[in-house]
Each structure stands twice: as structure tokens, then as C-alpha cells.
Design brief:
Blueprint lengths: L6 H15 L1 H11 L3 H9 L5 E2 H8 L3 H13 L3 E6 L2 E9 L1 H11 L7 H4 L3 H14 L4
Antiparallel strand pairs: 1-3, 2-3
């Protein structure tokens, strides 16, 4: 009987390769932008449009106090703004500014070369991996 991996096993392997190889890129983003990487993560979560601080905390995987600290910092830098939510005047909506969009684009422009295990794959292996990963991409 062939060795058939479980979806969970494959997922663990895939996330391990990605997560364990991203540190050099994250450090480069931090060095070039002058922002902690957690701030870049917050900016990315604001791309779809204004959201409440509570929604932002949840989507960025932070607790509310950490999200508040991040938004305060980003607001001081002119990268986000807070406005009263017209649907509920007791809460505020956070949105990314044009300067925040530029910062996010700058962060995304930092080179992110493939880690050695990926770079060492043959052309055929790379095509197979690419084709499989394309099947996993969410549809827009």
C-alpha cells in the first residue's frame, strides 16, 4: 500500500517550510521600514477598508490592548486614521491612509528570495509544486 499522507501532515509540512524560512525577510522589512513587523501585519489587515479596533485585533491575532498600542503608533506616524463609526458612535473605525498604503507597498517590495530547500528543487519539481499551489489559491 502506498504511503498516503493525511491533509494535516501535508499542511504541517507546508506551514513549517514557510514559517521557518520567513525570518530573514521579516527582519529586512523591519530594517527598511523602521516598523516592527506586527505593524506591517496591522496595515495589511486594513486593506479591505475601515474596521473597528476589535475587528482589527481579532484579524491580526492580537489582544485589544496590543492592537490599541499598534494603532496609536501607526496613527502617530500618519499611516492610519481613526474616525467615529457612523453606525455606532461609541466606537471608532480604523483605516489605512495613503501614506500607510505607500509604506505597505514599500514593505512588499523588499526582496523575498526562495529558501534553499525550494531553490534546490529541479525545474520539474518546481512546476509540479507551483501547479499544486495554484490549485490551493483562494479565488478572488
Amino acid at each position: 500500500m502506498p504511503d498516503t499522507p493525511t491533509p494535516d501532515e501535508v499542511w504541517r509540512l507546508l506551514t513549517h517550510v514557510v514559517i521557518e524560512s520567513r525570518d530573514p525577510w521579516r527582519r529586512a522589512v523591519t530594517d527598511r521600514t523602521g516598523l516592527p513587523f506586527s505593524r506591517i501585519r496591522v496595515l495589511k489587515r486594513l486593506r479591505p477598508g475601515p474596521i473597528t479596533l476589535k475587528e482589527l485585533a481579532y484579524s491580526a491575532g492580537m489582544d485589544a490592548p496590543a492592537a490599541t498600542v499598534a494603532v496609536n503608533d501607526l496613527e502617530e506616524r500618519g499611516l492610519v486614521v481613526r474616525e467615529i463609526d457612523p453606525r455606532n458612535r461609541r466606537q471608532k473605525l480604523v483605516s489605512i491612509t495613503e501614506e500607510g498604503e505607500r509604506m505597505l507597498a514599500f514593505a512588499k517590495s523588499v526582496p523575498d528570495p526562495a529558501p534553499p530547500p525550494i531553490a534546490e528543487l529541479s525545474g520539474s519539481e518546481l512546476r509540479t509544486l507551483r501547479d499544486l499551489l495554484r490549485k490551493l489559491e483562494p479565488e478572488d
